[in-house]
Design brief:
Largest sheet: 7 strands, mixed
Structural class: alpha/beta
Helix content: 25-40%
Oligomer: single chain
Distance between the termini: 46 Å
Order of helices and strands: EEHHEEEEHEHEHEHEHH
Radius of gyration: 19 Å
Length: 284
């Protein structure tokens, strides 16, 4: 590993709050040993960027400067998706196959992405190196916040595919209120709504991934978790119909700077509001 994994950014002393921001699809990089020759088709190299959450770093990457602890992965979720179950892949004759699981070995049309199959032993090594440390670090950080404040909240930050999210601008996922008190989700929704964004909760396919499901234990652990999806179409001037073709050619969409700034203001407001709402929830 050429750099520490996972990425952890702590707030300055005296500014920390009981909020942890996880950005599981932050990274756009391939694994260090992956080269162009490893792909089945040369243009598949663009998948490492395309499978990341577009401009997630612009939204969530510096939230440690506003009191949150930030956790992220530098590597594209094509190589390991830490928001999936650890066993979310198929086994075929000693090889791993997955179109939308903990790794991506095949396209949705079932074409192999890589020139060589991924052996089960190689996958297990990858999971031990990249998946397990993300979860152990999350557990460690959340436990530290909970012990320090008596409660904690995990905000799992994403930007979503314009094709899948369609006209939904902001989606909050709490596994239908199982992982987070409704007052906390309501506070997040109200801030986005006041700033002119349409907000929905627990839309099918966006109710919360494995991270939220694993760590959101408001009743038993006083740890809340919500998933936040921002439609990537808000963040770029490229239309959603052009986006896939643009990325497939190796391009990076042009940023919609004004919208990015608006959403960043929302996130700063959210980080300022959540600690008091969280304290009120547990005081009652």
């Amino acid at each position: 590993m050429e750099q520490p994994f996972p990425i952890v950014r702590h707030p300055l002393p005296g500014t920390r709050t009981p909020v942890l921001v996880s950005v599981p699809h932050y990274g756009t990089q391939p694994l260090p040993h992956i080269t162009r020759d490893d792909y089945g088709e040369p243009w598949f190299e663009t998948f490492a960027y395309g499978f990341a959450d577009t401009f997630a770093g612009d939204l969530y990457g510096d939230l440690h400067e506003h009191g949150a602890t930030v956790l992220a992965t530098p590597f594209s979720r094509m190589f390991v998706d830490v928001n999936r179950r650890r066993d979310d892949f198929e086994r075929h004759d000693g090889e791993a196959r997955s179109r939308r699981g903990v790794v991506r070995t095949h396209t949705m049309r079932d074409l192999p992405i890589f020139a060589r199959p991924l052996g089960l032993a190689d996958l297990e090594h990858r999971l031990q190196t990249l998946y397990d440390p993300y979860y152990s670090t999350l557990e460690h950080l959340l436990t530290g916040l909970r012990d320090a404040y008596g409660h904690a909240i995990l905000l799992d930050g994403h930007t979503g595919s314009p094709r899948r999210m369609k006209d939904h601008q902001v989606i909050i996922g709490t596994r239908h209120e199982a992982t987070c008190a409704p007052q906390l989700a309501g506070a997040v929704a109200a801030i986005f709504s006041r700033n002119g964004f349409e907000v929905h909760e627990n839309v099918s396919g966006y109710t919360g991934g494995n991270i939220v499901a694993t760590f959101g234990r408001p009743q038993t652990r006083r740890v809340h978790a919500l998933q936040l999806e921002i439609n990537a179409s808000l963040l770029m001037t490229t239309s959603r119909d052009e986006y896939i073709a643009h990325v497939s050619r190796g391009g990076i969409p042009k940023k919609a700077e004004d919208n990015i700034a608006r959403i960043r203001r929302c996130l700063r407001e959210i980080l300022a509001a959540l600690p008091s709402v969280l304290a009120t929830v547990h005081a009652s």
